[in-house]
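Re: the pair you flagged

First of the two:
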Amino acid sequence: MDWNFRNDLPIYSQLIEQIKLAIVSGVYSPGERLQSVRDMAAEAGVNPNTMQRALQELEREGMVYSQRTAGRFVTEDLMLINNAKKALAKSRIKDFVESMTKLGYGQEEIMSLLDESIKEERKNGNS
């Protein structure tokens, strides 16, 4: 998994978002066993305590669960995964609309730009 971090958010929140994204996009399958905290932290280039904190939060949300001697696993609750996917999408849409509004675009212009971009993506075979 590629780990990319920005300076505007705490690392553990970015870890949560990136692991959640990997779950909802199918990089990690429902029921799949995750690497150890130490291995995931080494791969991401972060402190194991930071990775542990992120995984604990994902566990609290139900996205992953622990089995005492076997490690952590991705939830098998497909409804929870779909709800997380929708929440991530809504968050990204909200950020996009806010940034477009700051650029001075109105609702109709934003919709037109989106429509144009979708058509272009389809033409290029990316959708």
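Second of the two:
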Amino acid sequence: MKIFTTYNNYPCASSLFPSKGEREPVVACLPDTALLKDNKPFFIPDWAEPCMAYASLVVHVSRLGRCISPRFAYRYYDAVTVGLSFVATPLLETAVASASPWSAAVGFDGAAVIGSFVPLDEQTRLDSATFRVTCDGESIMTSCRQQTPRWTVDDIIAHVSTWSMLRRGDLIYLGYPAQPLKLTPETHLNAYLNETLVFSMNIK
């Protein structure tokens, strides 16, 4: 299982993930040890503070594919959820300044949270899906349809599949359309996909 994260799909993330007019998605592949699911708590590492949370829609890859055309990409995903990417800001700033890999800043253990997947059908459509994340009951990250992505999920799948084989169970984060949250210990996060609760977790 691979975890692909898209960093330059929305302007909200541009302050931390600099975009220099790229003509294609900037996508990283995280190790499977970064995955945090089943409502497990996240423990902020001492070396990661301040640690930021970025919210994204995440799609579940449903079949094997390589070099997929955008017009056929819809056949390769079948469910969606809300995910969080935890970012060690000091490490990322250092990596960006020195043109070094971002791995330690974005791919550490537990850095990629996913909620329960909701099957895509007539009731749950990706083009109308929205999410909301609350911290201790207060809405702090919300997507809206006015936030237009630079690339669609089909574009991202076509791009990723040119350099990596996609397999059933792979995860693709589609980008961050909401302002990030600075994580604080002893808080509680809930995430909703179209007002359906998909995860509930504690920050330690």
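The first helix runs from residue 89 to 97.

-B.
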